[in-house]
Amino acid sequence: MTDEKTKTNKKKRHRSPAYPSISLNDAVEKATTFAEAEGLGRIPVGSAVKSLGYESSSSSKGFRTIASLLSFGIFEAEGSGAKRQIWVSPLGKRVIHGERGSTERAQAIKEAALKPDIHKMFWDRYGVKLPSDDTLKAVLITELNFNPHSCEDFIRELRDTYKFMNLAGPDIIAEDRDANEVRGDNIEVNNHHYKSPKNGPNMQEYTIPLIGANMSAVLRVPRPLSKKNYDTLIKWLALLEEPLTVVEGQPTDDEKEAPAKKEAS
User: Fold this and answer.
1) What is the pLDDT of residues 199-242, one digit of tens each?
2) Which of 202, 195, 207 shows the shortest CA–CA distance to 221?
3) How far apart are CA 112 and CA 168, in angstroms?
4) What is the pLDDT of residues 159-170, one digit of tens each?
5) At 115, is the secondary structure helix, strand, or coil?
6) Which residues of 152-163 are buried (b: 16+ CB within 10 A; e: fewer)?
7) What b/e string do you get for 75-102 counting C-beta neighbours within 10 Å, with b at 16 or more?
8) In terms of Cα–Cα distance, which of 163, 159, 168 is closest to 107?
9) Quick one: DSSP state of residue 217?
10) Domain extents for the chain?
11) Which residues, at least 6 apart from 36, have a Cβ–Cβ distance to it below 8 Å?
12) Are 96 and 33 in contact (CB under 8 A)?
């Protein structure tokens, strides 16, 4: 009975959604090391771990690296356990052996960078320019149920991958800038970036009166709104409290600037 109670009282570990443990730049370096040692054929997963530069064939870090290479689409795998085989994918070959600076390699790197579902989600939402770390963290926690302690590692990996993707082919990335413009207006409030949703047949706008002369807020939401999305909206409003509000009795930014403008004139 006591053992069962102890197990029940054990705190469950909060696991974040899957994401690469290394950036694409590091993944390409590891894959290049692997290809130089093993060529392009299939090899046992234990040998693959050692060929990636890890001392033990059972290295947990080595297996996380393989998982990252698989998520980027640079490696492919088949089988399970000791019979699992690893090899460089066609996409991996284009990245590893592609001519540096070529359009083909740049396109392959972009394709690999956006293979992980979580990378694709942020690309679809923000395009070529990621918002602030605070905004990324807010999205990770409120929308993806990320463990707050994992956010910093993921954001670092995401930014490093974006940087590598841009360095590999700035022209390829630039082609997406126009397309990115139609995803919605970028809104910035104290370094927090937000996207305005497109107007649609199910969008409804509410004008909310606020305390003060001629003050109101406009809320535009899709209808019907699920309870889960309603809760997400409430969390976002809570996160916006600091950048949107001013402590009672303190001047606003506009009020601070007014005397300076008056003196300048």
Assistant:
1) 444 677 777 777 766 777 877 888 777 888 887 888 777 777 77
2) 202
3) 12
4) 999 999 887 655
5) coil
6) eebbebbeebbe
7) bbbeeeeeeeebbbbebbebbbebeeee
8) 168
9) E
10) 24-177, 203-244
11) none
12) no
